[in-house]
Amino acid sequence: MTSHRIGYSRVSTTDQNPDSQADALERAGVDQVHIEKYTGTKASRPVWDQVRAILRKGDTLVITRLDRLGRSSRDLIEIAQWLDDNGIALQATEQPIDTSTPEGRMFYTILSAFAQFEREMIVARTVDGLAAARARGRSGGRKASLTAAQVTRIRKAHDNGTSVTELAEDFKVSRPTIYRALETTPAK
Q: Is 112 annotated as catalytic?
């Protein structure tokens, strides 16, 4: 049975670029690189689920850093247990993690705690920043894509038979934005 080195890379948002991770994984000699653009706070992620399905006993999962695999220590410990139960090693290119060694397992445990701590600090700073902005009369969140007048025009056009796709193209927004606009206005 031939063992494989499977690379997994993740960025949290679609506007982040995973190229540096992909390059590092290729330099590490992986057979395949799987790139995910999805938050690390979710245990189930589409590409990660695909990677889990192809990993076999004797394979090595290669990542760049532990925080690319997940953010919560609970999730990272569950992943480590799953890898161990299935005879799969884990290596990180930028950290001293190689779960095929006792030292590597120790570093994995320590760094998973730091990954969760970092995530919790980000959340705390965000909450503090939003509270400070509200105290100054500003509300957080993204600026609305559509004005109230545009939402009214969208409802009227949709009631007259214009498709959601056409409306999205006309107003230069996504279809989900059109659906949300339609949900806020009653059909006539």
A: no
